[in-house]
Amino acid sequence: MTLEQERTLFKQNRFIAMPLAGTIVWALIGLTAPFVSEFVITWMIYIGTGAIFYLGAGLSYLTGERFFAKDKVITSFDRLFFVGLIMSLMVFAIALPVAAIDHSTVPLSIGILAGLMWMPLSWAIEHWVGYFHTISRTLSIVTVWYLFPDARVEAISAAIVIIYIISLYALEQRYRLAK
Q: CA-based Rg of the chain, rounded to a whole angstrom?
């Protein structure tokens, strides 16, 4: 296949399993935060964001995306998405040492870095949703970080969940219009 044929095939995907997983994880983090210690919430953010991929992979069978189906054709754009995912994970190399100095930075740094992979997705599917997601997520996280110093985890989680909901709606509209 040519690269454009691969892109056409890639664009036919629904792309909602991973954002659904992210919505679930960040909602749970935000809802749990007022009731647990900072130590527990820090670990919930690390483990929860790490679990998004696995939860998304499971959800992909409910959404029809079937990430690991044997008959799935893997395109260069699928590989680009996974490279973007790995790129985002590599930013943990910055987040972890900073968190060791000040653990309160975890929701800020992890919230932003986990949204970076949306940029190459937007380019690959030629749609605005990924650019919107990364930019609005970053700006809103930084904004609520300063506006709600006593409820940072809750505010950051709420901002991320709202952006996920908007992104899910946009992705589903894009998918339906493409059919």
A: 17
